[in-house]
Amino acid sequence: MSSCGHSELVEDLDSLLAKKWLGSPADSSSPAGIAAKLGHDLFITKGLKPNLLESIKMSLINDGTKEILKVLAAVIIAALLVFLGLSVAQGKANSTGSPSPHASSSASQAKP
């Protein structure tokens, strides 16, 4: 590169490839510090495929709230159905006016 007249590129490439321009994760104003606040380390290469723990963590972050809300809604709906089912069944038993089995057996024993 220096033979082509671009000697300053060597210094710039050295700085870029050494990742000096990213700064330190401890410095909150540097790109590395901003990425560290977001939970990423720019100086560790993890590859294209996350490991099992990273996959579980990301799915919980992305879908955890939705899944919790789905389970909570299902529990509330189930509780309402049970409550309404019991109150409807009790209402039907009271509204038919039929005597209870115990009352009819005691009445039949009193007749003779």
Helix and strand layout, with pairings?
Layout: H1 7-17, H2 31-37, H3 52-95, H4 101-110
Query: N- to C-terminal separation?
Result: 122 Å
Count of the domains: 2
Q: Name the assembly state.
A: single chain
Number of strand segments: 0
Largest sheet geometry: none
- CA gyration radius, whole angstroms: 36 Å
Low-confidence segments: none
Mass-distribution shape = rod-shaped
- Indicate the proportion of strand residues: under 5%
Helix content: 55-70%
Average residue pLDDT:
75
Order of helices and strands: HHHH
Count, helices: 4
Structural class: mainly alpha
In brief:
Helix content is 64%, strand content 0%.
Offer a few descriptive terms.
single chain, 4 helices, mainly alpha, 112 residues
Tell me about this structure.
This protein is mostly helical. The chain has 2 domains: 1-45, no CATH class; 48-96. Helix content is 64%, strand content 0%. It has 4 helices and no strands. The chain has helices spanning 7-17, 31-37, 52-95, 101-110.
